Amino acid sequence: MTRIRHNKRNRYCCLCIIFYFIIGCSFFITKSNLNDSLQSKCLPKNPDNEIVDRQDEWEYQNSITGQWYHWRTVYKRQNNPTEWRVNWLNVAPKSYLGVIVYLAPYGEFKSLQTSLAQLSHLLSNNPRPIAIFHEGDLSDNNIQQSLAQTLGNHTPLTFERIKFSNSPIQPGRAHRRWSPKYFHMCRFFTLMLPSHPLLTLFTFYWRLDTHSYILGQKPIKDPFDIMKKRNIQYAFTMANIDDELHTHGLWSFFHEFLKEYCLKPSINFRETQTSWFNSYSFAIIYTNFAIANVSLFRDHSLIQAWLHKVDHNGGIYRYRWGDAPIHTLILTQLISRNQLVRLRYFGYMHRNEYVCANGIKGYLCKAQTKPLFTDPKTTYHYQPDGCNPSSGNPLCHYYPEIIL
Ligand SMILES: *[C@@H]1O[C@H](CO)[C@@H](O)[C@H](O)[C@H]1NC(C)=O
Question: What is the sign of the dihedral through the CA atoms of 352, 357, 359 and 360?
């Protein structure tokens, strides 16, 4: 009796094992098939194959030899690089860690002068070389000498002449009130600047506009040194919200890019760029002040692929896409949270918006900014923590803030 029962139980167990084995096997097969089909759905493009080295119509001139060169949008490391020769006014750079760059027309001479005076004062402990890109209207020797004097003879200064092409792309009707120069400026800062040979001499570049004034009472700690010591790739000071009118189609275009390279929106991207129901937050880094590793926008293959895709699309000219949203989308997607920071240990003013260093408020802030309120017709807006809007801008306090 006992034995028979035993046998029955054994047979039962055996059936069970076979049953579970079959279930397990079929589950495994389905899963690996699913994986295969998912994989076959997403084969990432090789970014290096997507970058077209256009021999652009844009040109730049060497300030010593006078020779003009076609401006390539791709920087190719040469085996035997001929170093770019620079005509430095005042003094030659002592260090090539960083360069401060402007793109300036003569029409903005006065604000450029103010911007340089602020730099000269705040960086007096450690003057950094400054390069002013222009279209020939700052070639005059008297103009150059007067700006060199504004800086004082410890700050190296150079002028780099460039030539924009006549873009064949017509801006959309909504954007025709902008001068053609404005669109060129956007393209210049989006992808052209890092491939200019002057930049190859330096590790970091610091972009400022003619209406960008850094401010504070005392000389500040050198931001390039901080970037290098803390392994920071990109730094900014203010965040803003872009106008919907200036980002037409950019959101879906970026998602197209993500799909092409089988990328999922990163956490940083989702937290700062995505709003309700996967819509665009329009939050932008205020890129009129930006310090970046030169190599970032020049050698990073995915960033290059994105910038070339944007350039090829023509949206900079057609829709007035700015370098701010173009850079913000890709930086939030690819750069890790501790390598992208907001510098808050000095104040900054751009046109009519300003912020003082972290902790400088009220009377003290007013004393620092008042001399810069030079236009009686302008209403100046104080942004207490450097963000517009002050609350509800997802970029505002997301990245580490350096307050020293
Ligand atoms: C700049 O970026 C490149 C990679 O693109 C990296 O190799 C280099 O270490 C970075 N430089 C600094 C100073 O962080």
Answer: negative
Alpha-carbon distance of 227 to 123, in angstroms, equals 15
Most distant CA atoms of the chain, gap in Å? 116
Q: Residue 102 and residue 134: Cα distance in Å, rounded?
A: 8
pLDDT band for position 17 (cuts 50, 70, 90): low
Counting atoms of ligand 1 from 1, which one is nearest the CA of 299?
A: 5
Q: Are strands 353-355 and 381-382 parallel, antiparallel or unpaired?
A: parallel
Residue 339 or 47, more confident: 339
Question: Going by C-beta distance under 8 Å and a sequence separation of 6 or more, which residues neighbour residue 382?
Answer: 354, 355, 365
Beta-bridged to residue 403, according to DSSP, are none
Would you kindly state where each structural domain of the chain is located, as residue ranges?
A: 1-41, 53-402
Q: By 3-state DSSP, what share of the chain in percent is helix, strand and coil, each rounded to 5?
A: 45, 20, 40
Q: How many A from CA of 203 to the centre of ligand 1?
A: 8
pTM for this one? 0.89
pLDDT at 100: 98
What CATH architecture applies to the domain 53-402? Alpha-Beta Complex (3.90)
Residue in this structure with the two tokens 């900054």, named with its chain if needed: 348
Q: Is the pLDDT of residue 275 over 70?
A: yes
CB-based pocket (< 6 A), ligand 1: 203, 228, 231, 293, 295-296, 299-300
Q: Give the Cα-Cα-Cα angle 317, 246, 258 (nearest 5 degrees).
A: 85
Asked if 283 and 273 count as a contact pair (C-beta separation under 8 A), the reply is yes
Q: Are strands 239-241 and 347-350 parallel, antiparallel or unpaired?
A: unpaired
Angle at CA 394, nearest 5°, toward 393 and 400? 110
The protein residue whose alpha carbon is closest to atom 10 in ligand 1 is 293
Which token pair is 80?
Answer: 């035997």
Q: Which phi and psi (to 5°) does residue 372 adopt?
A: -95, -5
For helices 301-313 and 323-334, angle between their N-to-C axes, nearest 10 degrees = 150
